[in-house]
Specification:
- By secondary structure, the protein is of the alpha/beta class.
- It has a single domain, classed as 3-Layer(aba) Sandwich (Rossmann fold).
- Helices cover 45% and strands 16% of the residues.
- A 7-stranded parallel β-sheet has the order 3-2-1-4-5-6-7, sandwiched between helices.
- Strand 5, helix 5 (159-179) and strand 6 (183-190) form a beta-alpha-beta unit.
- Helix 4 (110-138) packs parallel to helix 5.
């Protein structure tokens, strides 16, 4: 796939978004581009979608490039960071790529367990380390992790996902402390944004009934908070912010 060069200069630098071509990732890529970042849209299998995102951003006057990389592979992560760095200083990293697969606990095997850990936890760790070192050397930067969902009760059928995302919550806090005061690291805990495929009408209504905001969230809700965290005061760090329509308050 052709990877267009980013045009022009941007004081905001480069925003690297993993899984940035589809669903919430696409909304994040487009929102960051709209605020003036050069966006590197990372993808693995969604080549057509990545092309569409880049074309959409460029059609709106923004700058973007699609870069294919399997972020579960250490060498691929290094190449991705190097490629992004060629386009400008990476000032924002959004660890968004994720795997959310249903499997009854007694039917789990090592393969599905490891795949969830590699994508949902190890990839953010590795990229945060690679990019965080660069940000530390430059004296500034922002890392935003898309952490575990809130507003839907944890289910045994999603055990590997839940465990990995809980680890990502703690990784967010550890990185925030380690990289302070130069780099701010925060997380977002989405509520009911895009429900799992196969969610029936009765379940949708049950979930909606628990949301004080009275609606299911949208990818744009998450993207707006990413943009906030990308430019928030440096006193905002080490937090995992629920974006859930008030469910976490309702349940507290």
């Amino acid at each position: 796939m052709h990877e267009p060069e980013l045009a022009g200069d941007s004081e905001k630098g480069v925003a690297l978004v993993t899984g940035g071509a589809v669903r919430v990732g696409r909304a994040i890529s487009e929102a960051l581009a709209a605020t003036g970042y050069h966006v590197v849209v990372n993808y693995y299998e969604s080549a057509r979608a990545a092309t569409e995102v880049v074309e959409t951003i460029q059609g709106r006057g923004g700058s973007a490039a699609a870069v294919r990389a399997d972020v579960t592979d250490a060498d691929a992560c290094r190449r991705l960071v190097d490629r992004a760095g060629e386009l400008g200083p990476v000032t924002v990293l959004v660890n968004n790529a994720a795997l959310f697969e249903r499997r009854a606990f007694l039917d789990l095997d090592d393969d599905i367990w490891q795949r969830h850990l590699r994508l949902n936890l190890e990839a953010p760790y590795r990229l945060s380390l690679l990019v965080g070192r660069q940000m530390w050397s430059r004296g500034h930067g922002r890392i935003v992790n898309i952490c575990g969902t809130v507003g839907i009760e944890p289910r045994g059928d999603y055990g590997p996902y839940c465990v990995a995302k809980r680890g990502l919550d703690e990784l967010t806090r550890c990185c925030a402390e380690a990289l302070a005061p130069r780099v701010q690291v925060n997380g977002i805990a989405p509520g009911a944004i895009l429900l799992p495929s196969g969610t029936d009408a009765a379940e949708q209504q049950r979930i909606l009934g628990r949301v004080p905001a009275g609606r299911i969230g949208s990818p744009e809700d998450i993207a707006a908070v990413v943009c906030f965290l990308a430019t928030a005061p440096d006193y905002v760090t080490g937090t995992v912010l629920p974006v859930d329509g008030g469910v976490s308050v309702h349940d507290s």
